Amino acid sequence: MQKLGLIQSLQQKLSPQQIQFIKLLQVPTAELETRIEEELESNPALEDGPDEDYQEDDNSNLEETNEDFGDNEELNVDDYLRDDDFTGYKMYGDGGEQEEDKEMPVATMTSLTEQLMTQLGFLGLDERQHLIGTQLIGSIESDGYIRRDMEAIISDLAFSQNVETDLDELLSILSMVQEFDPPGIAARNLRECLKIQLDRRHDDKNIDVIIARKIIDECFDEFTKKHYDKIMKKLDIEDEEFVKDAIELIRKLNPKPGGSSAGIVRTQYLIPDFILTNNNGKLDLALNSRNAPELRISRSYSEMLDTYDKSDKKDKKLRETLTFVKQKLDSAKWFIDAIKQRQHTLLRTMKAIVDFQYDYFLDGDESKIRPMILKDIASVIEMDISTVSRVANSKSVQTDFGLYPLKYFFSEGITTDSGEDVSSREVKNELRTIIEAENKKKPLSDDKLEKMLKEKGYNIARRTVAKYREQLNIPVARLRKEL
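^ thats the sequence. predicted structure below, dont judge the formating
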């Protein structure tokens, strides 16, 4: 039995101008100009140039001004973002916000499959063989390997293409595909991939190539486990330099041949959002000038609105024109206000980060980076954590000692024996230094690394050592072993 009832609930929804501000806040400096150009093209009531009725003296005014947003309603985006799901709360940059659905400059290139199909066309195969080759290429995964069982591919050809073949013919055509570029493509495992690349060198007199082929053919398990003494014994080689050179040659081969042909590559820009300079011990912070564009409301559109509004004749066509002009003027004002609010929020956030990490920014000594999480900055600027996250995950600062993403300065804290909190970045640097100085013939295990760090005063668990080592892209001990 159905019943009708009334339910009363309170909901918060973002207004168009608040959505516009959130999007603009996340946009890095490199894309801001493009976003402004799009707005200028779509809104004739917005013009490029200084506003004659309003001039700001400098960026510092932004720190003292809280701009009105929309119809005299102060923007408080934090109220709308408290339930946002964002990552990187105690992060050194682990991704943060998902990208907005917006156009980005891209560099396109031919896909891996298209490259391989072009090369297949050069073999001069008959229609039946061409279908088999096409099926093999279609079975290649994004990293360049064919992991599907050969018998399964034979069945696919029979059922989907009505092509009868056997294992010998399939392997024969597979060997042709494996001759394609990039070298190592269509291999069925890592061993075959490396072997294909070594065979492509066609250098039977180079001792390094000869030994490398023997290592892959006869000692692959020993190679993956870095048992170099067993390799020397098995191949009856007394001079370890021969094995060392051959292994170095193998290491230079590409273990993922499909990875370099990955279709679309995003264009990246290295343009700082902030400029921080040290003037005789005083830190001066400024926004990149691209973040402060000169925009104004079109005077002609404002006058047009006044003229239409004062007109005695208010027919349907005039009312529609009046509505259109007003919408464009409101949109232009919203956009200008959003840009100013963006500047204000960026400066407040960056100033708080500089104050928190002041000692570090004076000379760039990484040991002076203090433990800092998003909540620390959010409490200083009295904004929600999600707002700080949006700024930290998409902005960078130019300092006297390099260009850094803001998320670089966020890290967890580790307690020392003296009870002092130090940044996890300092611990990572110490960990990297210890590993770089280790004996590569007997690399240090995570347990030994933990003990050495504790001897230096860092209270750290073995699992934390393993986590930091992985974040530094340093492999486990057995994979760091060298001759």
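The first strand starts at residue 46 and ends at 48.
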